[in-house]
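Long-time lurker, first post.

We've been arguing in lab meeting about whether adenosine-5'-triphosphate would sit comfortably in this protein at all. Half the group thinks yes, half thinks no, and nobody has a model to point at. So I'm putting the question to the forum: if I give you the sequence and the SMILES, can you give me back a predicted structure of the complex? Inputs are below. Any interpretation is welcome too.
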Amino acid sequence: MTTPLLAVENVGRRFGGFVALEGVTAAFEPNRVTAIIGPNGAGKSTFFNVLSGVMPPSTGSIRFKGRDITGTPQHRFAHLGIARSYQITNIFPELSVHENVRVAAQALRTRYDIWCNRAAMTELDDKADAALAAVGLAGRRDATAKFLAHGQQRALEIAVALVADPELLLLDEPTAGMGPEETKDMVGLLERLAKDRTILLVEHKMKMILGLSDRILVLHHGRLIADGSPQHIQTDPEVRRVYLGQNDGYA
Ligand SMILES: Nc1ncnc2c1ncn2[C@@H]1O[C@H](COP(=O)(O)OP(=O)(O)OP(=O)(O)O)[C@@H](O)[C@H]1O
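Top reply:
Settle the argument with this. Predicted structure of the protein with adenosine-5'-triphosphate, as tokens:
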């Protein structure tokens, strides 16, 4: 069996006396797409926040490539090989598309690298261009970020995440606010990226999740109630019960 890239064991998170996440255990193999779904308030964002170091878990442990990273501060995650995008578009609107990615690349460097090494600057430019090419934005390189269409802004965020060359990409609702065409483009992008990366995503668009994911985890009231292939999840009686009556396209 392959060593899991990421393994969480008995992970939980409390807010005061409220248990938002409880006893979640799962291991994630490399180069797979896993979706985390669940009704509103199920604990998806909390799980993502814990996985990406936004907050430590109250219980349990998280291992990345066999190394215990429980409680590691968020700013160290990019160096570990874990990158995250947010639900809300999170770019510098007044900077160019290329500048947005280069700033991210620069942030991963030390001051010494930046000020003393001209070659390092060229390398940063090249890295930014490679990330833009990977998400299909090379042609908009010099556009001001605020003038990109919404779908392109989300792709830019992914380029920003890619500049650290992460092995694990955590994507919080990458198709939020997108219509069918933009969603289709994003799915195509994620399929390309998934060839040599591990992707975990939180999403609400069920048809998209069923088509894209190798595996789906279902959270409900902070607990993992199902974990399996899209086919398995679609026929799981507990999942069907949880989603019954929810107007989110699940069928
Ligand atoms: N910082 C916080 N303090 C107190 N309670 C919180 C906090 N963050 C989340 N919660 C609570 O934890 C529960 C899980 O919230 P979470 O945002 O993780 O759910 P979710 O599945 O992402 O929901 P949605 O699909 O609506 O985004 C909710 O009841 C929420 O009110």
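For your lab meeting: Residues 15, 18, 20, 38, 40-46 surround adenosine-5'-triphosphate (CB under 6 Å). The chain has two domains: 1-45+53-81+171-251, 92-165. Whichever side wins, do check it experimentally.
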